[in-house]
């Protein structure tokens, strides 16, 4: 059977998203085929348009690191026909044909069964961003974290930071400081749960000292770079930083003092190759205890047929919240 997919094609250094029609691959014994109902746009999907980003090693490629839908072909007893499922990360949309397609055929071990209490659409409103936020929150909660602890969340107008903010608020944390470069985002971030919203510049003091006032008992950082360097001296004794992102850059110029004098812990978060065996539990949390009940992220809905035009504009107006693709 033939199906439509969005392919990134590279010509003379320029990447163009182009719809193609292709035949479904033959199902291998360890694979399942899924009729995709929803996908989403993550920062990484947008970066795939830039050949210099290194996200894709070869073109043409069908992007889309996330997908949710229904199993339509399977040799796996635990994934019967009709089972609702989701996939985030692994090699999907990177070195394996991704979620921007009406059908995907993927290794069964990548597939998470959709928890009851979660719709396919909600699974993709979370997507990689939501699962990364959940892993980041888990990392902070792995040690006692009283509800009155002041917490800092960077990149909060985006997917990872936004979900982290909303989840922490839902869990009862109320001294939440969100960081945004956008003054106009304050009402939105307050709605998500921020007690205060500050700019990155407000965290950067001049001259920067290796140890400053201990302002934050925990940090969820989706930005990294200079902003992380500015945050480290302001983390309280024993505080944890869950670092997942690098929108602010890959370099980290800092000193050892926050680590060796204040027992600060910098914890790397990776959702892409997070063990398959532990994913069901994370998604169960996103469907239940972590699921915000009184608020949700801004979500822009895009029809799959409009994706070729929309994907290149993803960053133009500084993205807020999540982008859901409906098939
Ligand atoms: N480790 C993992 O497994 C994993 C998984 C998912 C995502 N990530 C990474 O996490 C980061 C966030 O992903 P996302 O999906 O949430 O992206 P997103 O939706 O595009 O949001 C990123 C946010 O970061 C802020 N930002 C962007 N550039 C910045 C800069 N130069 N300085 C300060 N803030 C900046 C922006 O907020 P303001 O405009 O409000 O300042 C933006 O809303 C990305 O680096 C992504 O690659 C990692």
UniProtKB/TrEMBL annotation:
SMART domains xrefs: PKS_ER (SM00829)
Enzyme nomenclature, EC number: 1.1.1.1
Segments forming domain Enoyl reductase (ER): 14-325
Pfam families recorded: ADH_N, ADH_zinc_N
Keywords noted in UniProt: Oxidoreductase
InterPro entries associated with the record: Acrylyl-CoA_reductase_AcuI, ADH-like_C, ADH-like_N, ER, GroES-like_sf, NAD(P)-bd_dom_sf, Zn-ADH-like_protein
Signal peptide: none
Molecular functions (GO terms): acryloyl-CoA reductase (NADPH) activity; alcohol dehydrogenase (NAD+) activity
Stated name of the protein: Alcohol dehydrogenase
Protein source organism: Loigolactobacillus rennini
